[in-house]
User: Fold this.
Amino acid sequence: MACSSCSTRCGLIAGSVAGAVACLLGIILIPVGNTVIKDTVKTEAVLVEGTTAYENWVSAGVAVYRQFWFFDVLNPDDVINGNIPQLQQKGPYTYKTRYLPKENITFNDNHTVSFVLPAEAVFEPSMSEGSEEEVITSLNLAVAGVFSLLDHGLANMLINLSKSSLFQRRTVRELLWGYNDPMLGTVGVFYPYNNTHDGPYNVFTGKDDISKVSIIDNWRSKPTLSFWNDPYCDMINGTDGASFPPFLDKKKPLSFFSSEICRSVVANYESDMDLKGITVYRYMLPASTFASPTLNADNKCFCTNDEYTKNCSLAGVLDVKSCTGFPVFISLPHFLHGSPEMLDTVNGLNPDPEEHSTYLDVEPITGFTLRFAKRLQVNMMYGPSKQITILNKVKENTLFPIVWLNETASLDDETANRIKSELFGPMDILKAVQITLIVVGIVVFVGCMIGICVEEIRKRSNVPHKGT
Assistant:
């Protein structure tokens, strides 16, 4: 019996030691596993041939779509006589864009890579409400252009010679991609677009410093912009928005440069989201992005039109004429976060933060943007003029919304499954091993310790008392 009791006790002690070792091993694997994960991500996030990041970066990747909504003018004759435009939104008219891979990819000695982004748009009827040949009554782009660019006497002569009016009827295709105007030649909201390129961009590969991966070193061969005549506003900050350095910190905003609006912006963390089983961080452009300098002093150097912005007190609009060469104003759709007076000069707009805000859903470990919606509105201005006949009865300067767009892309099922299997699969296995070792180790250790205590109590109860 003594030998059996000793054997049981020795087995329990051995079991408790084994349990403690298993638990300790599971705990040790936590920092070791985290280090392995970080090293793997750092290796695969670098923009060099053979990495996961490069394979996704160099290809066209997930299809990007641009949805356009136009504002159809219901009362063009009344507007010329001094009334407020009555607008009706039409759309979306959807085009597949950014589906071509990067071109002219060149690696440089300073751990950067340069490239250009080809631009092409293909109409997608199945994703559209109407044909691209649908006719829209919209602001005459050429008339609005000469109103802002030329002496009004000369502008009136050109308008009369060309028999132009304040509004025109054009197809969706013409308004977006260009048509021949008798005053200015070929004009269009996004003309030229097809067969053009954005860039060249030069970005860091991250090979020498992973915290710099995808960050723009220069654009169009210059490290800064030249549109705003100010060191702060001319800075090119962050990436192009397609990806960011890995291991995101919710407390730190993401910076990215947008060539469409000719400036850099920041996006703030909003919430965690689930995207096809992958946790992503949602970042959103804050309301202060296009805020008046009276509310956001950093925007002072972006204000270049004192007349329309009422000495820079107007919120929600960005004059990009210095960048595009044409008198265009960028805002959020339906003048979201804009000054109330902009909504007072037109009827038919309904700003909605849910529908009209810009956001990016970024996977926090890799820094890859897996879903985004970039929403902008293109506007032009017209106003009263004593010299331009068709504007004689117009009562006030009006920022007219021509079209708003939603450029969007989302992770497809195939890519989601690949990310989960290649990146999160090994991580999940490692976590499962860690948890199993810790739990089993604790259970075995506690069970064995209880067994030892029971054996000790039983042993003591079997010892005879003195005097019996």
The first strand starts at residue 64 and ends at 73. The CA atoms of residues 455 and 461 lie 10 Å apart.
